[in-house]
Amino acid sequence: MIPEDHPRYRSLITRERLAECARSGIVSWEGLTAHGRGEAFDYLIGEKTTGSALQAERTAAALLLAAHHPVISVNGNTAALAAPEIAALQKASGAIVEVNLFHRTEERVRQIEELLREAGCDVFSGTAERLLPLSHDRAWCRREGMYSADVVLVPLEDGDRCEALVQMGKTVIAIDLNPLSRTARSATLTIVDELTRALPQITKACTEVSPDECRQLTGSVDNHYLLSEAIREITLRLSHAMD
Ligand code: PTJ
User: Fold this and answer.
1) Are 28 and 176 in contact (CB under 8 A)?
2) 3-class DSSP state of 230
3) Cβ neighbours, 10 Å, residue 91
4) Which CATH architecture has domain 51-242?
5) What is the arithmetic mean of pLDDT over 44-57?
6) Is-contact 157 147, C-beta < 8 A?
7) Which of 44, 93, 120, 159 has the fewest CB atoms within 10 Å, counting from its CB?
8) How far apart (Å, rounded) are the C-alpha atoms in residues 177 and 127?
9) What's the CA gap between 104 and 158, in Å, rounded?
10) What pLDDT was estimated at residue 16?
């Protein structure tokens, strides 16, 4: 039992949720270590949405709204942490929600799809094929889903698939707290923010951006600048900590 007045209450509750979802099979055991890495980077950015992340979130909304065939890719950690937030973003953006797993089993796909549906998502399921140019199981996706997408949102991604999707000519939006990761560096646009803070910001921006702002944002994506800003914000925080 975690007392509500514990200074790290939110963090501990989140860990408990992930552990529970790992025991039930929704989150892979490896997903727990991925979360730990995310927590460390979240500490470094001050556990808040930075100015550059907010800018990236608004741009992500514009890219999703301007897309012809946007897809939100969901893995175990994302489903466990943010199924209702995915449902809200799907409603605001009109994107397809598709499960894509690194540690893939049919049973995990089924469990995650069920969790997403319970949270209100309209999940794109059906027969998956080995369609992406990858030797591991993230290659499995649906022909009319991710394979045909022009814009793909990939929260908590592994670098390989991000690179493969970009090479296929897709616009890839990553949510990754580590601005140094291969995913962060190869995506078209990287949001360096915690998943459960980032998704509501993108959803909110979907309801706010005008067609003019949408054109302006999609025409000026500069991921190198956004990542440099994220690293600058971390460095600034570290140097203040030493004062
Ligand atoms: O459910 P599966 O089988 O598809 O597996 C999913 C995991 C997460 C295990 C898989 O995609 C993986 O191994 O990911 P990586 O390569 O560890 O990358 C995860 C990245 O997400 C790391 O750079 C973390 O810093 C970051 N991250 C972790 N938790 C969060 C996060 N970023 C944003 N919000 C978080 N809550």
Assistant:
1) no
2) helix
3) 14
4) 3-Layer(aba) Sandwich (3.40)
5) 97
6) no
7) 120
8) 32
9) 14
10) 96
Could you give phi then psi for residue 19, rounded to 5 degrees?
A: -65, -40
**Strand pairing category for 189-191 and 140-141:** unpaired
Q: Is ligand 1 within 6 A of the CB of residue 37?
A: yes
Counting residues of the chain whose pLDDT is more than 90, the rounded percentage is 92
Q: Against a cut of 0.85, is the pTM above it? A: yes
Out of 11, 43, 77, 178, give the residue to mutate to test ligand 1, the one with the largest number of ligand atoms within 8 Å of its CB: 77
The two tokens of residue 240 are: 């203040």
Question: From the CB of 47, is ligand 1 less than 6 Å away?
Answer: no
Collapsed DSSP state (helix, strand, coil) of residue 121: coil
User: What's the 128 CA to ligand 1 centre distance in angstroms?
Assistant: 22
Residues 6+ apart with CB under 8 A from 35: 14, 15, 18, 77
Burial class (CB in 10 A: 0-12, 13-18, 19+), 96: buried
- Residue in the structure block whose two tokens are 């897309």: 67
Q: Where along the chain do its domains lie? A: 51-242
